[in-house]
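Folding problem:
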Amino acid sequence: KILMREAASLILVAIVSFLPYCHSLSTPNFSMSQPIVIPEEPPETDASNCVYPPEYEGHLDRLMVRQDALLARIQELAKDIAKDYAGQRPVVLCVLKGANPFYQHLLDALMDLKQGFYTEFLRVSSYEGTNSSGQISIGGGLRMEELQNRHVIVIEDIVDTGTTLSQLLPMLKEQAPTIKSLEVCTLLSKRIGKPAKCEAKYVGFSIPNHFIIGYGLDYNELYR
């Protein structure tokens, strides 16, 4: 229910309140990035020019974030990161599969700013259908030695319960104990009505408690 892709405007969502991090590694001099808040009942949007496979016809509710707003916010996040990591070359760690579109656009924006980085990928899942299962499964070919003695930014598509991060971040710290700093950048943060187990440092949009799809977010591997 929610996201779809337009011919000239993509899809997505919006903001959240912040709690203390569930990690305490030393970090560079970070500045807080302010998310864009999507209201509880997003306005209806004309979907007549939306582009999606015909088998999805009738499955989608409304468009939450247009492509121009989406890309503009990613540019702002890249500026925040480039400012905070000036003179550093952080590892930008993508949580597959959902974060990949966001990740690619964020890297493009960082390159435009001449910010150096290393790229790494990790596959993590805590969803079964529309619900978070409470336990994560981890895959992918990440070599923990690539994180040692470096600043690391974990790139997520969405944070809601914080279950994934509350298990992933301690795992990274345990298996790569000499990480210099560990932060999270998420495109979306969902307001679920109770404190999340973990929050992100950089947040693109804070969104209401709807199940959303598109721009990498899926339902059982559909609608990405």
